[in-house]
Design brief:
single chain, 744 residues, mainly alpha, Rossmann fold, two-stranded antiparallel ribbon, 9 strands, 4% strand, globular
């Protein structure tokens, strides 16, 4: 009996015992390393939460938040028919805005889906909190994705870990994935990395499934960020180089066809892009290469077919072939010459069927173009990149990643050609536009990791031989030990460890020092929040607020008021009109405001302190953009510049709005203002409390005070809101048939 019970117990024990999984030590170290990289990448990105709580950064994230809340409230289907226009609260008054036609759904849809998933799991989370932490999680996740991409390209786990580690801390990427920066880039870089991973994987392993995954992710990217164009053209250029270098393979046709066709199909379903994407001049190279690949594949089949063999046996005199070709050339040239002579509109026909490259993307290709489009040049992140910016965003890796390109040339596999193209194109585009350092940053991490892996390989071999106790006589002295001894190996490893420490410290320091602040809290002051809340609860629902376009999203999303212009910059003529209203005197300004039925005007006064970014440093762009569209109204040369202003500036509406009631002796920022105004002889509304400013008669503001009544000034006098009074001037101006300008 006892024996039977013992056997029964053994049987039950075998049933409930979980077999111990054997995990290799190196795999365990790898998994722990990836977990730590993810944790530290997340930690360095959520510092803004500990600094000021849940507050979104910059401007565009507020529009993405608005879109997310709309989807959560009304549903995904409603987004496709979402149009804001008067008489309701809207943007771009009086025309309104068609949201699906002018915005990407990727970010708000992803955040809304995440919100519904959490609710399904019983986790109640504020949508604003999801939007706030979303970029940080995507940035940390991108570090893990970078591991797989680097490993796939370099065939090295070490390179994968190094690239993931670098991406976790590199400032050029951290700044756009820090908590609160809820914009397209938050998910865009992650999708680019995953797309390239699946494409390279499909190419190397002849995997149709990986090609399909690359296409699906590329379609997701197309629905999320305008930089999708870069990936299509990069892949097209890569295929072209492989064809020229005679590296064609059927796996290339398989991978490229699956990726491009699926990606473009999804792109045509996105309302902002639509089927017209197939006729865009910046997408056509991808389509041309797709056709070329099929021609390349079909050519041998056609050449070896029976019909061609029969034709080859027919002997045609060379003279006849020559005469035939010459006739075709002459006839074709004559037709084109005749059409040209008769004024056939070649350019118009081409533009009708092929969409030209947009101004923003053309600026990336040709940096000189920004001088022709001041509205593009007015955006700080569209400026050309200086060497200081390169170093600030890439730090020590800016000197390491060129070695990655060198080692790629040295090995020159298909993947290395891709790395070379990736490095060269990303570097050029980042030099053209500072914003694109965001795309360069992961490329720098990838190339730097690859370079360090190649440098470390022989040294690691020496250490492995020593660790395994291999006799000195059996070591590969001629190839390794004879060239690099143990002491050199240790020095090299210490050098690489120092690079890692510098990258970690610098990334964490930049995140703490420069990325914790938010634009809506200038210098940590709550003026903007106060002003927006005041507008939300004190201005009527019918109020129409004019401001410079930078603040449009804040006013519409947070204050819930109708705006004339915003950060979408959809209508350059309308922006120029608002710029002209600010640049001209109050008599002319009120005429323009009347066209848009403006009830209130808002300006942001930064007390002439560079770090606050007030309108006192933005007025030159208001003047320039207005001059581009209305040169008869505005002449930039009459205004001087920030350090040498003229009377025309002092008579402008923006100047009188900004400097109304200044300098205020109670302001803690008074020192900045007095020093600046004294140095450059700016006019003051009030007598200078320190007595060393040249004063001006307050009658200079007499007419201004009758037209613009100050109804709100924030606690630090940063935000000033004026109510427009038309009754005093309408009799003199005789405004008739007031209509807004058409979309320009």
């Amino acid at each position: 009996m006892a024996e039977r019970l013992k056997k029964l117990g053994s049987m039950l024990k075998s049933l409930v015992t979980i077999p111990k999984a054997k995990i290799r030590k190196d795999k365990l170290v790898l998994y722990l390393s990836l977990i730590l990289i993810f944790f530290f990448a997340l930690l360095v990105r959520i510092y803004p939460y500990f600094s000021h709580g849940i507050v979104l950064k910059a401007y565009d994230p507020y529009f993405q938040l608005k879109s997310t809340l709309y989807i959560i409230t009304h549903g995904f289907a409603a987004w496709f028919s979402w149009v804001e226009k008067p008489p309701g609260i809207s943007t771009w008054y009086p025309y309104g805005r068609n949201m699906p036609k002018t915005s990407f759904p990727g970010i708000p849809w992803t955040a809304a889906i995440l919100y519904f998933i959490l609710r399904f799991l019983g986790i109640e989370v504020d949508p604003v909190a999801i939007c706030f932490f979303f970029p940080a999680f995507m940035g940390a996740l991108a570090s893990i994705a970078m591991f797989f991409l680097a490993k796939e390209i370099s065939d090295s786990t070490k390179a994968g870990l190094l690239s993931a580690f670098f991406l976790a801390f590199i400032p050029g990427y951290v700044q756009r994935t820090t908590a609160g920066f809820f914009d397209n880039e938050a998910i865009g870089i992650l999708l680019i990395i995953v797309t390239l991973y699946f494409f390279i994987r499909s190419l190397k392993r002849e995997s149709l499934l990986s090609g399909i995954m690359a296409g699906l992710i590329l379609g997701y990217l197309s629905a999320s960020w305008g930089a999708y164009v870069y990936v299509y053209d990069l892949l097209a250029l890569y295929v072209l180089i492989l064809l020229i270098s005679r590296r064609y393979s059927k796996s290339l046709l398989l991978s490229y066809t699956a990726t491009i066709s699926i990606g473009l199909f999804i792109a045509t379903r996105v309302p902002r892009i639509g089927p017209s994407v197939l006729t865009k001049s910046d997408i056509l190279p991808a389509l041309v290469m797709l056709i070329l690949l099929f021609v390349y594949e079909a050519t041998p089949l056609v050449y070896n077919s029976m019909m061609v063999k029969r034709i080859k046996n027919i002997k045609i005199p060379r003279k006849i072939i020559g005469y035939l070709l010459l006739t075709i050339i002459i006839v074709t040239s004559s037709v084109f010459a005749y059409l040209w002579y008769t004024g056939f509109p070649f350019i118009e026909v081409l533009e009708k069927h092929v969409k030209p490259i947009s101004g923003k993307f053309w600026t990336v290709i040709n940096p000189l173009y920004r001088e022709k489009s001041r509205i593009i040049a007015s955006v700080a992140e569209h400026a050309a990149t200086s060497w200081a910016e390169f170093y600030f965003n890439l730090n020590i890796l800016s000197f390491v990643y060129p070695l990655g390109i060198y080692f790629s040339f040295k090995r020159l596999k298909n993947e290395d050609i891709f790395l070379i193209l990736l490095g060269l194109t990303a570097t050029y585009f980042a030099g053209s536009m500072i914003r694109l350092i965001l795309i360069l940053s992961p490329v720098v991490c990838l190339l730097s990791a690859y370079a360090l892996d190649q440098i470390l390989s022989p040294f690691v071999g020496v250490l492995r031989e020593i660790r395994e106790g291999m006799p000195l006589a059996r070591r590969k002295r001629a190839r390794i030990s004879g060239i690099v001894g143990t002491e050199y190996t240790v020095v090299t490893l210490i050098f690489v460890a120092s690079l890692l420490i510098i990258a970690t410290y610098y990334g964490a320091y930049i995140s703490y020092k420069y990325m914790a602040g938010v634009e809506i809290l200038p210098n940590g002051e709550p003026d903007w929040q106060e002003a927006l809340m005041w507008m939300r609860y004190n201005l009527p629902a019918t109020a129409i607020v004019a401001s410079w376009w930078d603040y449009g999203y804040w006013i519409n999303t947070v204050a819930n008021k109708t705006t004339i212009v915003d950060n979408a910059t959809l209508n350059s003529t309308q922006i120029a009109l608002i710029g002209a209203a600010f640049a001209l005197n109050e008599t002319e300004a009120v005429k323009i405001y009347k066209r848009f039925n403006v009830t209130h005007v808002l300006v942001f006064f930064g007390y002439c302190a560079q770090g606050l970014g007030g309108d006192e440093f933005k007025w030159p762009w208001m003047v320039r953009i207005a001059e581009d569209h209305f040169p008869k109204l505005v002449n930039e040369s009459l205004y001087g510049d920030i350090t040498s202003p003229t009377g025309t500036l002092f008579n402008s509406t923006v100047y009188k709005m900004l400097f109304y009631g200044e300098p205020d002796p109670q302001s803690k920022y008074l020192g900045y203002l007095v020093q600046f105004m004294s140095r450059y002889k700016y006019l003051a509304y009030r007598p200078d409390p320190y007595g060393y400013l040249s004063l001006i008669d307050q009658r200079h503001w007499a007419l201004f005070e009758k037209v613009f009544k100050p109804v709100y000034i924030s606690s630090n006098r940063f935000v000033k809101i004026y109510e427009v009074n038309y009754s005093i001037l309408e009799a003199k101006m005789e405004i008739t048939d007031a209509k807004p300008y058409a979309n320009g």
